[in-house]
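A reminder from the course coordinator: this example appears on the midterm review sheet, so study it carefully.

Given structure:
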């Protein structure tokens, strides 16, 4: 992942776009974060919990590595056990409600369903996504 970092180097800023938002009153598109703003300089603290900026290609390689159980382009990046842990909901029934989504680096979505033979509602992982 050669294009993933905590900031975009000056030599790559021409490939980076501004972040736009819509004005809540007029729906007019405005620049929320110019491309030469927060992502153009190295932050004081490189926090492992958030703050990466990437390209579609690098994101695809990351997602493909997760889909492949931790392997990418013929090499192991993460153990299969690590990927299983990353993609398994760690919350108890008390900590979650049916139909909720939880962002913990990746997105875990629960769907509530009841089978004909089930005596209680079960929570089933139906989607894994990355909130980046």
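Designed residues:
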């Amino acid at each position: 992942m050669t294009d993933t970092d905590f900031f975009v180097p000056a030599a790559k800023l021409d490939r980076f776009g501004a972040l736009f938002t819509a004005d809540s009153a007029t729906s007019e598109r405005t620049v929320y974060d110019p491309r030469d703003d927060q992502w153009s300089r190295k932050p004081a603290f490189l926090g492992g919990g958030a703050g990466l900026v990437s390209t579609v290609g690098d994101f695809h390689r990351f997602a493909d590595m997760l889909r492949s159980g931790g392997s990418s382009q013929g090499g192991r990046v993460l153990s299969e056990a690590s990927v299983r842990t990353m993609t398994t909901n760690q919350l108890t029934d008390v900590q979650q409600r049916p139909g909720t989504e939880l962002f913990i680096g990746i997105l875990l979505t629960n769907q509530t369903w009841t089978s004909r033979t089930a005596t209680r509602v079960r929570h089933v992982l139906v989607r894994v996504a990355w909130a980046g």
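Strands lie at 19-22, 29-33, 71-72, 75-76, 101-103, 106-113, 122-130. The first strand starts at residue 19 and ends at 22.
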